[in-house]
Amino acid sequence: MKIHNLALAVGAAVALAAGTAAAGDWSKIRIATEGAYAPWNFTDSSGKLVGFELDLAKDLCERMGSECEVVAQAWEGIIPALQAGKYDTIIAGMSITEKRMKVISFTECYAATPATFVVTKDSPSAGFKTDLEAINLAEVSGDEKTALDAIKQEFKGKTIGVQVATTHLNFLNEYLAGEVEIRSYDTQENLDLDLDAGRVDAALAAMSYWKPLLESDKGKNMVVVGPGLTGGPFGAGVGVGIRQDDKDLVAKFDEAIAAAKADGTISKLAVQWFGFDASCK
Amino acid sequence: MSIEFIQEVLPRLLGGLLLTLQIVPLSLVLGFALAVLVALMRLSPNLLLSGLAYGYVYVFRSTPLLVQIFLIYYGSGQFRSFFQEIGLWPVLREAYWCAIIALTLNTGAYTSEIIRGGIQSVPWGQIEAARACGMSRLLLFRRIIFPVAIRQALPAYGNEMILMVKSSSLASTITIMELLGVTRQIVSETFVVFPTFAMAGAIYLSINFGLTRGVQWLERRLSPDLYRPRETGDAIAH
Q1: B191 contacts on A by Cβ (under 8 Å)
Q2: pLDDT for B68
Q3: Sheet strand arrangement including A105-106
Q4: Cβ–Cβ of B187/A183 closer than 8 Å?
Q5: B1 band by pLDDT with thresholds 50, 70 and 90
Q6: DSSP 8-state secondary structure symbol assigned to residue B143
Q7: Which CATH architecture has domain B3-224?
Q8: Are A184 and B191 within 8 A, CB to CB?
C-alpha cells in the first residue's frame, strides 16, 4: 500500500515537472506589474489594472499569440518574485540599468522619458530653471556640469522624496547625497501625498508620470522645475524584465516590440496615455 | 550568503537598529505614563472619565496598528491647514513623531488594560489593612496598590514590550528607516532577499532575547517569594 502511494506521488511529481517544461513554448505568459504608477500601470476605481503598459502588454501578447495573465506585485519585491518564478515577465515602467542587468535580462526598450523634479506651486523653488532644458548624464559636458551644480545649489539642505528601488533614487544617491535629505517611499502615490502635504520639498520621477498627474485635479498644486535628466543612472529606457535563463522569451518579446514600434502602435499608445510620444526610437 | 555581503550590509542594518532602539523605548515610556492615567480613569467612579477611557481603549485595541499609523501620518497631511492653525503641524510633519504618536497611543491602550487588571487583582484585605493603618488615598496607592499591581502585571507587560519591538517595524511604511525599513531598502537595491531578511529577523530575535531576560530578572527581584527553592515532594515524604 505504501509503495503504491509512493509510486503515485512520484508519478504526480513527474507529471508536474513535465507540465512546467511544456510551459516553455510560452503559450501562456504571466506578467507582473505594479499597479500604482499611473499612467504606466495603475488600478482604476473599479479595481482593474489599466494603463499604457496594460494596453501594450495586450498588444504584444496578441502579436506573440500567447495567452497573458497580468498580476499586481508590490514594486520593491518585483525582481525577487520574478526570480522565484511567481511570474515570467515584469512590465512595470522598469528602466534598463546595469545594476538590474546583473540579475535579470531585458528586452529592447519600448519607452523612455526624462526624469524631472516637481515641487508645489507655493514652494520657493517653483520658478527654478537652468540654462539647459535637458541633461544627458552619459557624457556630462561643461554646460551640463554647470546645470547639475545649479540643481545641487537649489536643493541644498532640502528634503527630496523618491520611490524606493528606482533609477531616480540611484541618481539622488550618486549626485546629491550629502547635499539633500533623501526620503524613499514604497509607492509613488504615497510620495505625491507627502509632496502635497509639504513633508518633502521636491519629488523626482519620470516626466511620463508627472505630465498626466499635473494635468489632473490631484496635481493642480504641483509644477515641474529644472531640466529633464536622462542617461547615466537613469539607464537606457524602459524594457520588459525577464529571467536570464529565458532567452527564448526575450527574443519573442523583442520581435513583438520591434513590430509594434514599426507599425506605430507604441507611439499611438504613448500619445494616448502620456500626452506625448514617449516610445523608444 | 557570503561574508562580504554580511560585512557590507551589517553596518547599515545596525544603523536601522539604532533608530528602532530609539522609537521603541520612547513610545513605551510615553505609552506607560498614558496607560497609568487611562487605567485610573477607567477605574474611576466618574462615568464620564471611565467612559472616555473605555472608548479610547476600545478604538485603539480594535483597529490595526497599520491603519492607525496611516491615519495619523497620511490623514494629518490631508488636514494640513487645520493643524497649521492649531500649531501641531511641525510635529505631525515629521514621520518620526507620527510613528511615536501612533505607537504610544496603541501601546497605551493595551497597557492600560494590563495595569487595570493588575490593580484589580490587589487583594482587598491588603487595602483594608492599609486603610486601618490610616493611610491617605495617595499613600495607599503609592505604597500598596501600585507596587502590587505592577508585580502582577509584569508578565503581561513583558509580552506587550516584545510586541512593541515587533510592531515598530510598521513605522517603515511611513518612510522611517528603522531596522525593517533599512532591510527592505537593501533588498530592493541588491535583490538578495533571504539572507537580508534572515539577518533582520536575527537582530529582532536578539533584542527580544535580551528583553525577555530583563523581564525575567525583574520578576525575580519583585517577587522573590515565588522563586525560593521549594522543598520537593520527596523531602516531605522523608
Answers
A1: 79-80, 83, 103
A2: 97
A3: A67-72, A28-33, A89-90, A241-242, A105-106
A4: no
A5: low
A6: I
A7: Orthogonal Bundle (1.10)
A8: no
**B12 touching A (Cβ < 8 Å):** no
- pLDDT at site A113: 87
pLDDT tens for each residue of B63-85: 999 999 999 999 999 899 999 99
Q: Which domains does chain A have, with CATH numbers?
A: 28-112+236-274 (3.40.190.10), 115-234 (3.40.190.10)
Instruction: Report domain extents, chain B.
Output: 3-224
pLDDT at B172: 94
Residues of chain B contacting residue A79, judged by C-beta atoms under 8 Å apart = 191
pLDDT at A138: 84
Q: How far apart are CA A191 and CA A186, in angstroms?
A: 8
Q: List the 251-280 stretch of A: residues with Cβ below 8 A of B.
A: none
pLDDT tens, position by position, A128-169: 999 888 898 988 889 999 999 999 999 999 999 999 989 999
> Residues of B with CB below 8 A from A80's CB?
187, 191, 193
Global ipTM: 0.79
Chain B CB contacts of A183 under 8 Å are 95, 175
Q: Is A186 on the interface with B (CB under 8 A)?
A: yes
Q: Is the pLDDT reported for residue A12 higher than 60? A: no
Strands of chain A, DSSP E = 28-33, 36-37, 41-43, 49-50, 67-72, 89-90, 105-106, 115-120, 134-136, 159-163, 181-185, 202-206, 222-230, 241-242
Q: Which of B93, B175, B191 sits opposite A80 (nearest CB)?
A: B191
pLDDT at site A16: 45
Query: Within chain A, how many helices (H) and strands (E) appear?
Result: 10, 14
